[in-house]
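Researcher: Quick test of sequence recovery. C-alpha cells follow.
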C-alpha cells in the first residue's frame, strides 16, 4: 500500500476568550483553552497508482489529514505510513518521493522567473541535470508552460501559477501526490487543463494521487473511489457510483413526447419535476426505473427518453445531512 492510515487523530489546543474589554483583561491572568478535534479516528488505505477523491465541507478535516500524511503535522495519535515511512519523521528518503500542492499556498519564489524557480526545486531535491531537463521538457509541453518560463511568478495569473506549481511539484517525479484544492479559483478552461494533465500523468507514471476539491468535476473526472469526511470522521469510503446509489434512492427520467402529455397523466408514474410542452422530467424510485420507462413507452407517444442519476453535489450534501 502507498498510504496506510489507522485511527488517525489530530487535536489542536485553542485559546478561547469571551468578547469585551473585561474578558480581555481577565485572559491576561487566566487563559482558557479548548481542544478541537480536527481529525477523529480516520482510517483508510490507498494502493499504489490509485486516484482517490477526498471530499468534505470546509472544516471537515481534509487539509489537516493531508498535512499529517505529508509530514507537516504530527498526529496526536494513530498510525500513519506513506510509502513505508512515518511522515512526521520527515526523512529525506520520504520527502523525495512525495509532493503536496495546495491551491491556497505557493511553493515558488515570487520574485524569480518561473524557470529559475524550477531550478531552485531541482537543487533542493538534487535531481540530476539530465533527468531534470527531460522531465521539465515533458511538463512544459503537457502544461503549455513555454510562454510562462521567463515571467516572474508574482505576475502570473492564478491559472498560470497553478500550472507552474504543479510542474514544480512533479520535477522530482514523486510516487505519491497530495493535491489540496488544485483548481481553486480557476476558470473552466484552467480546470479542464489541470484535470486532463493529472489523468494523463497518472496513466503514464502510475503515481498515487489523493485529491481534495470542492469542484465535483475534478473528482468525477479523475477518481472512481471517494472518501467522504465530515466533522473529522470518515463517513464513506468506496466506489463513487456506489455512493450515488446508496444515498440517492431516486433517478430522473427525462422524456420528450411527439405531442404534449398532461402532467396529471404522468403523476401516476412518479413525481413530476418538470412538465412544459412536449418535455417532462419525472423523479422515480431507483427500483422502479425500468417499470416506469416501459409504461411511458407503452402508454404515451414518446419521442426520446433518458435516465440520469442526480448530480454528485446533491448526493454529497445528502451524505453530510445524514451524518
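Model:
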Amino acid at each position: 500500500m502507498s498510504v496506510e492510515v489507522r485511527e488517525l487523530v489530530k487535536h489542536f489546543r485553542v485559546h478561547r476568550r469571551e468578547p469585551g474589554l473585561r474578558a480581555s483583561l481577565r485572559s491576561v491572568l487566566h487563559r482558557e483553552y479548548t481542544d478541537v478535534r480536527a481529525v477523529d479516528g480516520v482510517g483508510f488505505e490507498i494502493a499504489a497508482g490509485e486516484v482517490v477523491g477526498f471530499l468534505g465541507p470546509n472544516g471537515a478535516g481534509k487539509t489537516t489529514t493531508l498535512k499529517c500524511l505529508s509530514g507537516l503535522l504530527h498526529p496526536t495519535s494513530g498510525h500513519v505510513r506513506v510509502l513505508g515511512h512515518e511522515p512526521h519523521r520527515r526523512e529525506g528518503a520520504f520527502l523525495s518521493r512525495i509532493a503536496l500542492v495546495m491551491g491556497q499556498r505557493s511553493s515558488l519564489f515570487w520574485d524569480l522567473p518561473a524557470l529559475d524557480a524550477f531550478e531552485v526545486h531541482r537543487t533542493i531535491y538534487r535531481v540530476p541535470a539530465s533527468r531534470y531537463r527531460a522531465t521539465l521538457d515533458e511538463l512544459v509541453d503537457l502544461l503549455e508552460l513555454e510562454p510562462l518560463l521567463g515571467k516572474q511568478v508574482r505576475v502570473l495569473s492564478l491559472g498560470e501559477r497553478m500550472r507552474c506549481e504543479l510542474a514544480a511539484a512533479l520535477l522530482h517525479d514523486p510516487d505519491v501526490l497530495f493535491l489540496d484544492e488544485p483548481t481553486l479559483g480557476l476558470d473552466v478552461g484552467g480546470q479542464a487543463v489541470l484535470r486532463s494533465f493529472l489523468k494523463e500523468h497518472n496513466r503514464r507514471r502510475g503515481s498515487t494521487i489523493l485529491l481534495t476539491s470542492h469542484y465535483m468535476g475534478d473528482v468525477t473526472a479523475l477518481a472512481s473511489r471517494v472518501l467522504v469526511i465530515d466533522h473529522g470522521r470518515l463517513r464513506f469510503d468506496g466506489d463513487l457510483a456506489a455512493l450515488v446509489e446508496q444515498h440517492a434512492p431516486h433517478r430522473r427520467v427525462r422524456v420528450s413526447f411527439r405531442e404534449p402529455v398532461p402532467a396529471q397523466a404522468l403523476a401516476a408514474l412518479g413525481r413530476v419535476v418538470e412538465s412544459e410542452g412536449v418535455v417532462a422530467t419525472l423523479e422515480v424510485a431507483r427500483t422502479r426505473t425500468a417499470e416506469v420507462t416501459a409504461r411511458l413507452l407503452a402508454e404515451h407517444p414518446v419521442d426520446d427518453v433518458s435516465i440520469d442519476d442526480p448530480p454528485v453535489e446533491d448526493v454529497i450534501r445528502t451524505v453530510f445531512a445524514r451524518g
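The mean pLDDT is 88.
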